[in-house]
Design a protein that fits this description.
With 110 residues, the protein is mainly α. The chain has 5 helices and 4 strands. It has a two-stranded parallel sheet. The chain has a two-stranded antiparallel sheet with strand order 3-4. It binds a DNA duplex (13 and 13 nucleotides) through helix 2, helix 3, strand 2 and helix 4.
Amino acid sequence: MSASQDELPLGFRARVWAEVRLIPPGRVLGYGHVAARIGRPRLARQVGWAMAALPADTEVPWWRVIRSSGHLALQGDPTRGVLQRGLLEAEGVVFDEDRVDMGLFCWDGE
DNA sequence: AAGTTGACAAGGA
DNA sequence: TTCCTTGCCAACT
């Protein structure tokens, strides 16, 4: 049996992208949460790497993936950091200072 | 082939 | 409470 769960035929990144694409508008998910959903709970950092590898014209809603603390990862990046907050607020995500209330906006996978 | 990097997370001071 | 250190493992050089 071709392992379909342990093996990653399309690469780890492809799985991450597929999962992120499932996040509905107005919701966010932590890097660790995304990693856990694809069966790799310890790979939060690699999820971030997968996001960094996304092409500019991607359909993957990368902006809905934030830190579990509610802070944005690219907060210090003047290019994508500011863009990410704008995209989230446009979807209805409310920021408390520079933080998102994970208890309200974290997607439970419904 | 081996070492380094890193859009993170949890724990300790 | 915030800040800093440690561990994690795929991708890159």
